[in-house]
Write a structure and sequence with these properties.
By secondary structure, the chain is of the alpha+beta class. It is about 20% helix and about 30% strand.
Length: about 325
């Protein structure tokens, strides 16, 4: 089905989805079900759907509770919940990338040769694809695998899960237990995310699609990068531009008008102070105190090398600077 979706994109269909773990027949193993769930979270449409099963014993529904009961694998519901949360975390990014697809005709889920036609090595990894402009997804399509070969095209790539940086072109033997799908973020990316109280991908944020719990922009900065973000509610765009200072630290970010209180999550910078429009922002020494801030402020997490900056609603263009 993955190849069918990628071929649909090549044929000019920008949005595509499938019946997670199959529509009919006997249920898959727990591992294949979870592999399918992980892939579907990084797909234009994520859904499970199966033929009418009320008259069958045992039931063949593709719901996580039925798969867990049938397979006796206690990991099914927790891992499904994780990827359901990841999907909701990604909604701001998916909205933006879907809007771009609607304007350009470029598929939201695209085969690597479409994006990088000159790189012939991409053809040797037909199941890999880009989800939008910035996420490289490498689904695991075989059972009983604890690792999976991932081809990284030229450039710098960051693991979505660990933040670890890799340089392409190269092939990685990436650890891939049944609960993990290899996903990498292109260097220079700005990922708009809806995160929960821990500000981590996989946080629960509920099912609301008309508002965000914590609107965040994860910045994987290079010398300069920009991102056009589509607000699906107001049909407006904003642009983020990032520049580095002489010592490599991220020095300046321009932020367009945003209707939501939001947070910048900036990898790889360790400032002594942060300003917004010339105003020094309050620093929090503990993550709990920072999460309790109702206005503006910043927190530096040395463990994951990430600077968190909370900002109020910006009705006009603002500038954030690190010192």
């Amino acid at each position: 089905m993955i190849l069918a979706g990628l071929n649909a994109g090549i044929s000019g269909i920008p949005f595509w989805g499938w019946d997670l773990a199959g529509f009919g027949g006997e249920i898959p193993s727990a591992e294949l079900y979870l592999r399918a769930t992980a892939m579907a979270a990084f797909c234009p449409i994520m859904q499970y759907h199966s033929e009418y099963n009320e008259h069958r014993e045992p039931c063949r529904d593709r719901t996580p509770w039925n798969i867990q009961e049938r397979t006796c694998d206690a990991d099914v519901i927790p891992v499904f919940r994780k990827y359901a949360n990841v999907r909701m975390n990604l909604l701001p990014y998916i909205y933006s990338e879907a809007w771009k697809s609607s304007q350009s005709g470029v598929p939201l889920m695209r085969a690597l040769p479409v994006e990088i036609p000159a790189d012939l090595a991409c053809r040797d990894y037909p199941y890999q694809y880009l989800f939008g402009d910035h996420l490289l997804v490498a689904p695991v399509v075989e059972e009983d695998r604890t690792s999976w070969p991932v081809y990284l095209p030229e450039g710098t790539w960051h693991s979505l899960w660990t933040g670890e940086t890799q340089k392409g072109p190269r092939v990685l033997d990436f650890p891939a237990p049944k609960e993990l799908i290899p996903v990498f973020v292109r260097a220079g990316a700005v990922l708009p995310l809806n995160l929960g109280e821990q500000y981590a991908v996989g946080d629960g944020v509920g099912n609301a699609v008309g508002c965000y719990r914590n609107l965040c922009f994860m910045l994987y900065s290079e010398d300069q990068t920009s991102y056009e973000w589509f607000d699906g509610v107001s049909s407006k765009t904003c642009t983020l531009r990032c520049e580095k200072g002489p010592h490599g630290a991220l020095a300046r970010i321009e932020i367009g008008p945003i209707r939501h209180t939001h947070c910048l999550m900036i990898k790889g910078t360790s400032p002594s102070a942060v300003r917004c429009d010339g105003r020094l922002l309050q620093r929090s020494r503990e993550p709990r105190h920072w999460r309790d801030l109702r206005q503006e402020g910043w927190y530096l997490n040395a463990e994951n090398d990430t600077l968190y900056v909370r900002l109020r609603v910006h009705r006009f263009r603002g500038v954030v600077e690190t010192v």
